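Worked example 3 (structure in, sequence out).
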């Protein structure tokens, strides 16, 4: 097993068990957990930037007007998704969280076609159709529209739109993103604490430590994911990304005993087949891209991967080969 696969599996497994972490904070309102997540992510990320010796390059590259607006948008969309994710996990909707995570790759394709005017490949059409059928079956079995899953995947789609043009490395981007949100989240936390509504330092030490750890739980899987992307083929990353919703699915059914039925299972089966088709299509596109590269034929590249720090997914719209660096600017080929 290659080091890249080890990094990738570790990252996606960590993303998958994040709900367990949030479940341990079910006595804390979702909004407060999200506030603490941004509040602690920023100083912890900046500490990592300092340790990596990237402070000077971060300040030089990060603070432009366009970057500020771009990462403010992505930060707000991520913040909204974080609140919804935490609320869903602690309110018994983990299966819907899993459903939304399974839909992420398909959603990225739909966003690419609908808003970015990208072309849809034949097997991507099949994958989208199968996923749509699966969601429909799940909705019928559920008795109502799975709005949590749909809102989460829409939120990830919006986040990806912002990050499609993001010029910074994932580490620097996360630092700027959390830094923009930091003063607002810190102020919100202070206000809640001053009004006696906060939970930090008012209860168990375990709760305080878990709140501080939300930043670490954000940073570690993202860095593992980036490390894996640098040395692992795209189609392998695509296949491994299904670990996250699969783990969430197992947790929802086997550990937290959320309501489940054969009809819901049928809906998930359509999603799993959809993901298999999507993975095969990514593999074929990857091999075609390599063949064209060896022949000296230029192939279109996307700007960058979009790392989804909520569910462990990444933008996989075109199946082409891309390069990554943790501390250097992403290679962008026009």
């Amino acid at each position: 097993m290659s080091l890249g696969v080890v990094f990738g599996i570790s990252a996606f497994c960590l993303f998958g068990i994040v709900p367990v972490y949030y479940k341990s904070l079910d006595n804390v309102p979702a909004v407060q957990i999200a506030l603490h997540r941004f509040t602690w992510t920023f100083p912890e990320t900046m500490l990592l930037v300092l340790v990596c010796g990237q402070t000077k390059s971060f300040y030089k590259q990060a603070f432009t007007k366009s970057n500020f607006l771009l990462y403010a948008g992505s930060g707000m969309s991520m913040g909204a998704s974080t609140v919804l994710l935490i609320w869903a996990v602690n309110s018994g909707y983990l299966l819907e969280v899993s459903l939304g995570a399974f839909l992420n790759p398909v959603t990225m394709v739909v966003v690419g076609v609908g808003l970015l005017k990208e072309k849809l490949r034949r097997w991507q059409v099949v994958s989208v159709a199968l996923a749509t059928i699966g969601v429909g079956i799940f909705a019928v079995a559920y008795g109502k529209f799975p709005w949590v899953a749909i809102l989460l995947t829409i939120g990830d789609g919006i986040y990806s739109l912002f990050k499609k043009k993001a010029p910074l490395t994932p580490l620097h981007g996360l630092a700027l993103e959390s830094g923009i949100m930091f003063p607002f989240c810190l102020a919100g936390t202070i206000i809640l604490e001053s009004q006696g509504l906060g939970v930090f330092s008012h209860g168990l030490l375990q709760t305080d430590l878990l709140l501080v750890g939300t930043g670490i739980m954000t940073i570690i899987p993202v860095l593992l994911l980036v490390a894996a992307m640098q040395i692992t083929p795209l189609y392998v990353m695509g296949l491994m990304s299904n670990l996250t919703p699969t783990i969430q699915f197992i947790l929802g059914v086997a550990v937290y005993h959320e309501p489940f039925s054969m009809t819901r299972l049928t809906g998930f089966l359509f999603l799993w087949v959809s993901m298999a088709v999507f993975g095969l299509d990514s593999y074929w596109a990857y091999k075609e891209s390599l063949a064209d590269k060896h022949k000296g034929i230029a192939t279109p590249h996307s700007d960058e991967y979009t790392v989804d720090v909520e569910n462990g997914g990444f933008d996989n719209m075109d199946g082409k080969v891309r390069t990554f660096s943790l501390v250097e600017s992403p290679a962008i080929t026009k």
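Notes: The radius of gyration is 20 Å. The CA atoms of residues 13 and 328 lie 26 Å apart.
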